[in-house]
Amino acid sequence: MQDSIQNYMQQVGTQARQASSVLMSAPTHLKNHALSAIYTALENNQAQILAANQIDMNNGRQRQLDNALLDRLELTPARFKGMLQGLKDVINLIDPIGEITDLAYRPSGIQLGKMRVPLGVIGMIYESRPNVTLEAASLALKSGNAIILRGGSEALESNKAIAIAIQHALQMSGLPEHAVQVIDTPDRAAVGHLITMTEYVDVIVPRGGKSLIERISQEARIPVIKHLDGNCHVFVEAQADLQKALPIALNAKTHRYGVCNAMETLLVDEAIAEEFLPRIAELYAEKQVELRGCPETQRILGVSVKTATDEDWYTEYLGPILAVKVVTGMNEAIQHINKYGSHHTDAIITENFSLAREFLARVDSSSVMINASTRFADGFEYGLGAEIGISTDKIHARGPVGLEGLTSQKWVVFGDGQIRQ
Amino acid sequence: MQDSIQNYMQQVGTQARQASSVLMSAPTHLKNHALSAIYTALENNQAQILAANQIDMNNGRQRQLDNALLDRLELTPARFKGMLQGLKDVINLIDPIGEITDLAYRPSGIQLGKMRVPLGVIGMIYESRPNVTLEAASLALKSGNAIILRGGSEALESNKAIAIAIQHALQMSGLPEHAVQVIDTPDRAAVGHLITMTEYVDVIVPRGGKSLIERISQEARIPVIKHLDGNCHVFVEAQADLQKALPIALNAKTHRYGVCNAMETLLVDEAIAEEFLPRIAELYAEKQVELRGCPETQRILGVSVKTATDEDWYTEYLGPILAVKVVTGMNEAIQHINKYGSHHTDAIITENFSLAREFLARVDSSSVMINASTRFADGFEYGLGAEIGISTDKIHARGPVGLEGLTSQKWVVFGDGQIRQ
C-alpha cells in the first residue's frame, strides 16, 4: 500500500512537472481561455457541486464536526456566486508572467533586467473550505504554475465535484490536463510524499489549523508559504482621534470573529485610557464581547473585567473575547506587539505624524496600519483578486499572497557579443 | 559540552535578535557611519589581518588542503584592496530599507503600499574565503539585519582578525555590538543549532562545497538561500553571428575555470556546426581545453574528441573540460538545458528576434542571456555592489543575491478612520 501511494505520488509529480514546462510559457490568452472555460463548467455544474457539498455536510454532522468547521465547509448558493466572482476577478487580473522590469545598461554594455516567471509546481494542502480548490487552481493557472491539490477528507465530495468541472474545462481548452491535479486518496501518506518530493514540487502552501501547518512545516523538505496565527493589535495612541478610534476598535474586533485579521488585543495609551476605555467598553458590551484587562484597565472599567494573564497576550481568541492593556506610550506598545504578536497585522490610531511614521518602521508585522481597521488585511481588500493564503513568514511572500507570490523573477541579459574582461 | 554549545548558541541567538530590533529601524546615516568605521578599522589593521591569513595558509599547507581551496583562502594585498573597495561600494549603495512602493488608494478608501524591511537575523555558513566575512557583514548591516557568521576552521585566524576590526568599529559607532557575531568554536554542533534556532534566525545563507550546502539544506529548519552547482550552457543557434559566438564561447569557458558561471556544455545547432565547431575547437586547443562530444561533434572534429556520456551532460567540471553537443534546433537545446542544467545561467547566441524571445521565456534558469557571456552572472557585474551568494532556488531570491535579497516587504495601510464594511 505504501509503495502504491509512493508510485501514485511520483506519477502525479511527474505529470505536474511536465504540465509546468508547458504552462511556463503559455500565452495569456490561452490561460484566460482555460479560466473562462472553467467558469462556464462550474456555472453549468452548480447543482451537482452543491449536492456533493450537502453530502459532505451530512457526513460532517454525523461525524459531529464542530460548528466553525461545518460553517467553513458549507457551499451556499451565495458562496458559490462569490467563488465564481473570485474566478472572474482572476481572469481580469493582469498576467504577471513575462513582465520585464528594471531593464538598464551596465558599464560592461550588457542590458540587465528582471523577468517575472512562474515558480513551477505548487503543492496545496488545505482543510474544509471547498472554494479553496477553485481559488488555488485559478491563481496557479493564471500565474503559469501547475498545482497539486490535497483537500481535507471532510470536503472530499465537494472538492471532487469542483475538480471534475475544472479538469473537463482544461481538457477542452488546450492547456495540459495535469495542470490541476486533485489527490483523491484519503491516505495521509500522500501528504508525506507531497511535501518531500523536491524534484517535482517547488513550493507548499498549507491552509488550515495551526497544528496541520506546524506539522507540515516541520516535515517539509520543500519551501512552505505558511500562515500560522493572527494575533492582531490596535494601539490607541494618546493623540488618537476618538471619532476614528472607536469605530476602528469596534470593527477590528466585532466585524467577524473567526478570522485571522480580527483584533485580539487592544492597547491604549494611559493618557487617553480614562476617556476612551469606558466608551469603547460600552460598545463591546452591546456586542457581548468579554474583556480581559490589565490591572489599570480593571481599575478604570471596574471589576466586571476579568484579569488578563500573560497567556492572554499570546492568544488568538477567534471569538468574542478581547484582551485590553493600558500602556505608558509608543515604546511599550511596540515592544508588546513585537513580543506577543504573531507579526500578522497591527494598527495604530493617532493624529501624530512622527509617531505614525515610527510605528510603521518599528512594528515587525506583515501589515502595519495607521488609522484603519486590521480587518482590511486580506487579498480581496488589497486588490490581489484572490489570495492563495496569508503568509506570516518573511521569506519570499509576506501577508496576503496572490498571483505575485506564486511567481519568481529571473535575470535577463541582452547583449551584442559582450564578453567578461 | 553539548549543553554548553547549546547555551552558547542560544545566547548568540538572543543577542542577535536584540540587535536586530534596533537595526531594523536604524537610520541610513548611522548604518553608513558604522560601515565607514569598519573601513577605517580594516585599513588600520591590514598588516595584522594579512599576518593572520598567513597563519591559516601555513596551517592549510600542513594539512595538505588542495590548491583550489588554498587559493580561495589566501588574502593578498590586492584582494584586501578589492575587499575594501567592495565595502566602499556597499556604503555607496542606496539604502533599500523603508522604501515604500506602489502606494495607491483602494476602493475602500485605504491607501495601500509595500515597505521594504530587513529579514531580521541572518545565519551565514561558509568555507575558506575570508573576504566573505566582510562582504556578508557589510551587506547585512546596510540592509538592517543582524548576522551570525560561521566560517570554516581553515580560515579561523583570518576571520577572527577581520571580526575584531568589525566589532571594534561597531562599538565605536553606536550600533549594537552584537549586530555582527562570529562563532568562534570549531565545534560542528554549533552549525546544527544555528540552522534550527527558528526563534532567533530568519534565513540561512550557506556558501561552500555542494556537500556542505546539501547537508545544511537537509537539516535546516530555517529557510535557506542556497547555491548548488552551476552547470551553464551556451547555445549557438543556426542564425548566430559567429563574430559574437566565437568570443563568447571562448570567454564563457576559459575566462576563469573554477567559477559557477563558467560554461560547462556547449550546444551547437546542426545547421551551423560544420562551420562553427572547427573554428571554436581551434581556440579551445590553444587553451588546452579538453572536449567531450556527442557522436556528431566527433564526426566533425575527429577522433581526438572524447565521447561524452550522459554523466558529462550533468557535470560541472570547474576546469578546462567542455562537453559539446550538436542539436537539431531550439527545442532540443531548451530541453537539454532544462533537463541537464542546474538552472543557473544559460545563453543563446542568435540574431533571430523570435527565437531569442522564445529562449528567454522557456529556459528555466536564474539568468538567461542573449548574445552575452555567462560569466556576467555575478553580483558585481549586475551592479548589486556585493553579493552574499548566488541562489539556485526559485523562492525568495534567484541568481546573485545582494542587498535586496536580504530584505522583505511588508504591507502598509494609511487611512483616516476606515472600517471594513
Automatic annotation (TrEMBL), chains A, B:
A GO-annotated cellular component: cytoplasm
Pathway named in the protein's UniProt entry: Amino-acid biosynthesis; L-proline biosynthesis; L-glutamate 5-semialdehyde from L-glutamate: step 2/2
Catalytic activity: L-glutamate 5-semialdehyde + phosphate + NADP(+) = L-glutamyl 5-phosphate + NADPH + H(+)
Stored PROSITE patterns: PROA
Key words of the record: Amino-acid biosynthesis, Cytoplasm, NADP, Oxidoreductase, Proline biosynthesis
Pfam families in the cross-refs: Aldedh (PF00171)
CDD domains attached to this UniProt entry: ALDH_F18-19_ProA-GPR
E.C. number(s) listed in UniProt: 1.2.1.41
Intracellular or extracellular location(s): Cytoplasm
InterPro entries attached to this UniProt entry: Ald_DH/histidinol_DH, Ald_DH_C, Ald_DH_N, Aldehyde_DH_dom, G-glutamylP_reductase_CS, Glu-5-SA_DH, GPR_dom
Domain called Aldehyde dehydrogenase: residue spans: 14-289, 313-378
GO molecular function (one): glutamate-5-semialdehyde dehydrogenase activity
Location, primary (coarse class): cytoplasm
Gene Ontology biological process: L-proline biosynthetic process
Function: Catalyzes the NADPH-dependent reduction of L-glutamate 5-phosphate into L-glutamate 5-semialdehyde and phosphate. The product spontaneously undergoes cyclization to form 1-pyrroline-5-carboxylate.
Family per similarity comment: Belongs to the gamma-glutamyl phosphate reductase family.
HAMAP family: ProA (MF_00412)
Protein name: Gamma-glutamyl phosphate reductase
Organism of origin: Acinetobacter halotolerans
Phylogenetic lineage: Bacteria, Pseudomonadati, Pseudomonadota, Gammaproteobacteria, Moraxellales
Gene field: proA
